């Protein structure tokens, strides 16, 4: 089963094709030096999800195109990769939490409109919650993205139930606290 079919069929997530990554040409946005996410970001303008049956044809017409999901069926908690992986060690003993890994960041998926409840108190400047129309995440097989924990059970192809953000609060607070202690207060 392709990722696009899993996103639209199993999860019922609205997916739109995004920028493409060309191995020798970089991102199709044409900004090779400063593109923050080569081949893993939306096309200009509003996100327009493709109908499930048309997505495969669109992706075949644009090899290497990113898969972009608007944050409507979930909230995306974007945080530094080390902190996310530290939280996942604790979370894996508690529940299955879909986790997407990128080069320097990771994204945890929770129920819509609950991501803010996962965050520790003030001073959490290196964590972003994407939680409304117009916000998005790039999904595998977009360039530089992969699933650490996919949002479906691989044996049964059933969706993983998303947790409320408050269920992640303790785990994220601990992981972010350890990171601050290791970096020191001045960094």
Features:
187 residues; 22% strand; five-stranded antiparallel beta sheet; alpha+beta; 4 helices; 9 strands; four-stranded antiparallel beta sheet; 25% helix
Structure description:
It is a single chain. By secondary structure, this protein is an alpha+beta fold. 25% of the residues lie in helices and 22% in strands. It contains four helices and nine strands, in the order αββαββαβββββα. The strands form two sheets. The protein has a five-stranded antiparallel beta sheet. A hairpin with a 3-residue loop joins strand 1 and strand 2. The longest helix is centred in the C-terminal third of the chain and has 18 residues, at 166-183. The radius of gyration is 17 Å and the shape is globular. The protein starts with a helix and ends with a helix. The mean pLDDT is 87.
List the helices and strands and how they pair.
Elements: H1 3-10, E1 15-22, E2 26-27, H2 52-61, E3 65-70, E4 75-80, H3 81-91, E5 99-101, E6 105-110, E7 128-130, E8 136-139, E9 146-149, H4 166-183
Antiparallel strand pairs: 1-2, 1-3, 3-8, 4-6, 4-7, 5-6, 5-9
**What's the overall geometry?**
globular
Order of helices and strands: HEEHEEHEEEEEH
Separate helix tally: 4
Average pLDDT number: 87
Report the structural category: alpha+beta
Strand elements, count? 9
Instruction: Estimate percent helicity.
Output: 25-40%
| Gyration radius from CA atoms, angstroms | 17 Å
Major sheet strand order: 7-4-6-5-9
Q: What is the subunit organization of this protein?
A: single chain
Give the termini distance in whole angstroms: 44 Å
Main sheet properties: 5 strands, antiparallel
**Strand residue content:** 15-25%
- Name the poorly predicted regions: none
């Amino acid at each position: 089963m392709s990722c696009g079919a899993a996103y639209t069929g199993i999860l019922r997530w609205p997916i739109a094709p995004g920028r493409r990554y060309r191995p020798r040409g970089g991102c199709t946005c044409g900004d090779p030096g400063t593109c923050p996410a080569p081949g893993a970001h939306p096309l200009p303008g509003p996100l327009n999800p493709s109908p499930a049956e048309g997505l495969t044809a669109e992706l075949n017409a644009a090899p290497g195109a990113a898969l972009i999901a608007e944050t409507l069926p979930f909230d995306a908690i974007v945080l530094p990769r080390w902190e996310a992986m530290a939280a996942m060690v604790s979370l894996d003993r508690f529940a299955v939490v879909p986790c997407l890994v990128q080069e320097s960041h990771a994204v945890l998926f929770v129920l819509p409109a609950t991501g803010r409840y996962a965050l520790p108190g003030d001073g959490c400047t290196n964590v972003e919650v994407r939680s409304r129309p117009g916000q998005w995440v790039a999904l595998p097989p977009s360039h530089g993205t992969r699933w650490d924990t996919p949002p479906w059970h691989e044996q049964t192809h059933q969706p993983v139930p998303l947790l409320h953000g408050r269920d992640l609060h303790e785990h994220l607070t601990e992981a972010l606290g350890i990171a601050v202690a290791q970096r020191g207060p001045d960094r």
